[in-house]
Automatic annotation (TrEMBL), chains A, B:
Taxonomic lineage from the root: Bacteria, Pseudomonadati, Pseudomonadota, Alphaproteobacteria, Rhodospirillales
Keyword DNA damage appears in the UniProt entry: yes
Residues annotated as domain Toprim: 79-174
Family the entry assigns: Belongs to the RecR family.
The name this protein goes by in its record: Recombination protein RecR
Transmembrane portions of the chain: none
InterPro entries: DNA_Rcmb_RecR (IPR000093), Rcmb_RecR (IPR023627), Rcmb_RecR_Znf (IPR015967), TOPRIM_dom (IPR006171), TOPRIM_RecR (IPR034137)
Zinc finger (C4-type): 56-71
Species, as recorded: Magnetospirillum sulfuroxidans
Keywords annotated in UniProt: DNA damage, DNA recombination, DNA repair, Metal-binding, Zinc, Zinc-finger
Role according to the record: May play a role in DNA repair. It seems to be involved in an RecBC-independent recombinational process of DNA repair. It may act with RecF and RecO.
C-alpha cells in the first residue's frame, strides 16, 4: 500500500531501539514529509558515519580517527584506565567530565547464559595494553548487574598479581534518588559504605 | 567527544518524532554498533525513498509512481472520494481495507491560529477534481478535533450546491473502548447517534 521503498524504510526503522512498528510508521511519514530538511540530511549523515567512524584499535571507542581522540589526547592521564562494558558507558563517563584517564572498552560482559567467556571480551588485549607498566590504576566501571559485577570480579582476579591498583565505582544512593524507590540492594550497599559526615 | 559525524547524526535523530536527545544517543550508538546490518541499509533505504517517493499530483498521497498506485488502480471506485488531513490518515484508512474509493489529501487543516486558510489547503485542487462530475460522494474523514471539524464543515458548505453527496465518519465509542475512559463529548455523540439493536 505504501510502496516498497517506504515499506523497507519502515521495516529498518522498527529495528531501532525504542521504536516499534507504529512509531516506525510515524517516523517514516515524518521523514517523507520533511524530505529536504530531514530525510536527505539524515541519509547523508548515516553514510558519513558509515564511512568515517571506526573502532579505536587501542581502547575500542568509536571515532573517525584511530587511535581515537581520547587515546590520542596527550592531556589524558595515561596511568589510569577505566574499564567499561561498551561505548555507551564510555560516553556516559565522558559526559560527567570528571574522569581524566583513558578507557578500555570490553565490548560485552561475561555471560554463561549467552556463552560469552573471557576470550570473547578482549581480555588478552587488555593484558597486552597493561604490559608496559604505564597504567598504575584500573577503575572497573562495569554495570552494577550480576553480569557486570561478575566481569569486574574476573578482571580484578586477573590483575591481582600485576601490582596494578584495581578500584571500582562506588555503590550507593543515586544523586536525587528517593529512598522509597530504591531497591534493598542499593540501600544495603549505601549503608555499608556510609561515610562520616 | 563523539566526533562531528556521530554528533551530527544524533542531532538529526533527535528531530524525529518521539525521539529526544537521550533516545537519539541510544539509537546512534546502536547504529554505529550495527554498521553493516542496520546503519548502511538504513542510509540506502533513506536515499531510495528520497529519490523515488513523490507526491501524487492527483490526490496528494506519497508513492514512487505518479499518479499513485491508488489513483492508478482501476479497481478503486472513482465515484467516492475520501478527504483526509494528511498521508498518515490515508494510511490509517487503507489499513482497515474497508474503503474502496479514492482519496484527497488536504495537507493540513484550517487553522486561524496558524494562519492556514482555504487557499493553503488545496481546495481549488479539490474543486477542479470534482468538476468532471465523476465523484458522486465525498466522505469527510478529517480528525474529530476542533480544527478537523471546522475544516469538514467548510468543505461541506463549499460542496453544498454541487449536487455531490457529502458524508462524514461517524462519531461514537471506539471499538474496545471502556466508557470510563471516554470523554463526555464522545459519549454524548454516541448517545445521539444511537441505533436500534
Amino acid at each position: 500500500m505504501v510502496g516498497p521503498e517506504i515499506e523497507r524504510l519502515m521495516q529498518l526503522l522498527s529495528r531501532l531501539p525504542g521504536l516499534g512498528p507504529r512509531s516506525a510508521r510515524r517516523v517514516a511519514l515524518h521523514l517523507v514529509e520533511k524530505r529536504e530538511t530531514l530525510l536527505l540530511p539524515l541519509a547523508t549523515a548515516l553514510a558519513a558515519v558509515g564511512e568515517t567512524v571506526k573502532t579505536c584499535a587501542v581502547c575500542g571507542n568509536f571515532d573517525s580517527i584511530d587511535p581515537c581522540s581520547i587515546c590520542a589526547d596527550s592531556r589524558r592521564d595515561p596511568s589510569i584506565l577505566c574499564v567499561v562494558e561498551g561505548v555507551g558507558s564510555l560516553w556516559a563517563m565522558e559526559r560527567t567530565g570528571v574522569f581524566s584517564g583513558r578507557y578500555h572498552v570490553l565490548g560485552g560482559l561475561l555471560s554463561a547464559l549467552d556463552g560469552i567467556g573471557p576470550d570473547d571480551l578482549g581480555l588478552p588485549r587488555l593484558k597486552a595494553r597493561l604490559a608496559d607498566g604505564a597504567v598504575r590504576e584500573v577503575v572497573l566501571a562495569t554495570p552494577a548487574t550480576v553480569e557486570g559485577q561478575t566481569t569486574a570480579h574476573y578482571i580484578a582476579e586477573f590483575l591481582a598479581t600485576s601490582g596494578i591498583i584495581v578500584s571500582a565505582l562506588a555503590h550507593g544512593v543515586p544523586v536525587g534518588g528517593e529512598l522509597d524507590y530504591l531497591d534493598d540492594g542499593t540501600i544495603s550497599a549505601a549503608l555499608r559504605a556510609r561515610r562520616s559526615y
